[in-house]
Amino acid sequence: MARAMFEYTKTVLKKVSFDSVLFCKELQKAIKRLLPYEIEELRIWINNLIEENPDLNQCLIYLK
Asked: What is Dmax (Cα atoms) for the chain?
């Protein structure tokens, strides 16, 4: 079940990556739902996504 939530979170974040404000809001929700090790995996995934879309960089503050 937890793994499904992680995959769902990645799908949602990818779909809203066009808008950094919306992306940040969804990221905040994701952090509340995911397990600590999944948050670390998400951090790696987001770093790769930021290479494609640099304006999402501001959302990294929620992962600190």
From this structure: 31
CB atoms within 10 A of CB 21: 10
Sign for the CA dihedral angle at 61, 6, 30, 11 comes to: positive
- pTM of the shown model: 0.90
Phi, psi (5° rounding) for residue 34?
-90, 160
17 and 23 Cβ atoms separated by less than 8 Å: yes
Domain positions in the chain: 2-63
21: confidence class by pLDDT, cuts 50, 70, 90: very high
